[in-house]
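Figure 2 data, in text form.
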Amino acid sequence: MSAPEANDVISFKDRATADQAKPHNDLLVIELTIQDIDVARVLVDSGCSANIIYKGTLERMEIDLCAVTERPSPIFGLSGNATMTLGSTDFVVKAGSVTKVTEFLVIDRPTSYNAIVGTPWLNSMRVIRSTFLLCLKFPTPRGVETIQGDRRMSQVCFIAELK
């Protein structure tokens, strides 16, 4: 199996479904397989400089917090408010046919998302995203693969975050 070519062409044909073609400002929310567990409600955030997973998600996945390397550090959101991490851990993340070991910062706060994948994961996967079509595309040795976002789940998560 060869590595993806640096000149692989990734394109987006205008094949939006009727639902996607409606004007929207929905966030890109996908499902990934993390540690062999299908994890829904994963926010794709290219403005986030880290990959984040929440303590509650780890508990629902039945992953012992002993797996977290305790290295508390502050991370800052757009508001400038700091949130302390519990530490970090590496997980095997599968997206389509591609598997990568990915570092996640662990945060203990309530949220409607299970995880956030930021620029470290997006860049390691060589992802190109379309917010209009709510999908990710990335090169693989077998060609370009697509992960379709879940518009309904995006809207549910967004409303829950406002509460």
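Caption note: The two ends are 47 Å apart (CA to CA).
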